[in-house]
Each structure stands twice: as structure tokens, then as C-alpha cells.
Amino acid sequence: MSLNTEAQKFITTSAQKLAMTGEDSLEAGSNTRKTVISGYGSAFYQRNFNEQQSTATLERAVLFVGHRFSPKISFFSELELENAKVEGGVSNDAEISMEQAFLKFSLNARRYIVAGLFTPRIGILNENHLPVNFNGVERPMVETLIIPATWRELGIGFYGNSERIPLNYSIALLNGLDGANFEHGTGIRGGRAEGNLASANNIAVTAALQYYWKNFKFQVSAYCGGTVTGSPKKSDSLGLNSGAFGTPIYLGEADAQYENNAWSVKALGAYIHY
């Protein structure tokens, strides 16, 4: 039984809506565009009325460079500067880092593979973290402390969408977290390698499903990965289980989003165990 034209159009539009993030402008515009340079930034002013203190900062400036080598192969990269000024020997929460650097291999119109440093599909903000995609000055606490967005790791991912129903799906294999860097107050955030000398002793798997219905988008995503980066001998001496998924961490979330013209409502719940 085939879908009618109107239903097929809805499925195609919905399933492809979030295929790539908003900053990946190489996917926009003319198919003849080979190289794209773009970016975004955010600056804010905050006032703590209780302590009578005010701060202003250029929170981040991001440069995007993308290149289409062929209709099937593209390159995406983002270079990010946080808090405007980086000084050696000074702790001011400023850094320069590669937020993404990956190749995209299009298998067909509905499926593709990415390989390199990329943001897996976990939660609402991790893939779509532009300042215009969340309400408020700061990112939500849940997607900062429980889901440590922006969360990027080295790995390979497979993405696709269904031809018959408005469903996106993804699965990715990544380097694991470093449990030695977990801290009280920031959770697993410090365990991210972010492409910097990531351990290959432990790995992680993440997967997500997105379903569209009318003005709603529903998503569930999960993460499972090892947290021990040391050698088996060292791990045994500390009483830790080593191996690819040794001393694992489990993270799951479910979210729903509603959009109607200028109105939007978002809800997310997350669970973590380690």
C-alpha cells in the first residue's frame, strides 16, 4: 500500500527537518556551492541583584568552514572561541577548540554516515545548540550537567529516516568518557575527551529515534559507554572493571517539542547512572 502524495510530502519534510544542524550551511542553498564559510556568536550581560554584581562577556564566537568534494562526500568543521580571550597560565574559563570536524558520506537521499569529531544526537540541544534554539541566556541545567552539551567525541555515526513514516534514527560508536575526570557538581562533563588524546581503551554507543506528528516532535535517545581509560593492570589494582564497556555509564532521555508559528514548548527528562 503506497502513501498518497500529501502524506509522502509531509514525511519527507518532517524527517529531513533536522537532518543536519542549523550552522551546517553547506547543506543550504544551491547545489553548486562547494565551499561555505559562516559562523555565529553570542554575547550577554548578567546582573546578580542579590550580590550587586554585573558581568558582560563574549560567550562564544564560532567559525564554520565546510566543503563539498562531490555530491556524496562533504566536510564540516567548527572552530570555537569561548569567553573571548585565552591567556597562558591564566584560569578564566576561556578556550579555543574544534567543536566539530567530520566527513559526511551520503549513501542516498535518506541515509548518510559521518566520521570524525561530531556531536551525537542526545537530548535537544546537543545537535542544535545555537543561541536562538533555547530560551534564556544560559543553556538549561539538565543539558549542561546531566547531558554535557555541547558533547562531541571522535567516532562514526549512521543516520537515516524512514520512507513510510516520519521517523529519524541514528546510531553512533564513539570513544568513551574518562571517569577519572568526573567531578562533584559538574557530573560527567569533565570526562569528555572532545577529540583531545581520547582513550581508545573504552568505547561508547549512542542511539536515538525521532518521530514527528502534526506540530510535535518526540525523541528518545540513550548512551552506554565505558569509563575506565587506564590499562587492565592499573584498573585491576584500583578494583575497576576495564575493557571496552568497563565500569559503564548509562544515560537516557526523552523529550517532546511543539511548534506553532511563533510559539514553541519543549520538555525533556533525563536519567543517568554510573
Descriptors:
274 residues; disordered N terminus; mainly beta; eleven-stranded antiparallel β-sheet; Porin
Question: What can you tell me about this protein's structure?
Answer:
The chain has one domain (5-273): Porin (Beta Barrel). The chain contains 3 helices and 11 strands. The chain has helices at residues 5-16, 142-146, 232-237, and strands spanning 35-48, 53-68, 73-82, 95-106, 111-118, 153-161, 167-175, 203-213, 216-225, 249-260, 263-273. An 11-stranded antiparallel beta sheet has the order 1-2-3-4-5-6-7-8-9-10-11, covered by helices on one side. It is globular, with a radius of gyration of 20 Å. 27% of the residues are buried.
Q: Give the biggest sheet.
A: 11 strands, antiparallel
- Please tell me the overall pLDDT: 85
- Gap between N and C termini, in Å? 46 Å
Helix/strand-derived class? mainly beta
* H/E series: HEEEEEHEEEEHEE
Strands of the biggest beta sheet: in what spatial order? 1-2-3-4-5-6-7-8-9-10-11
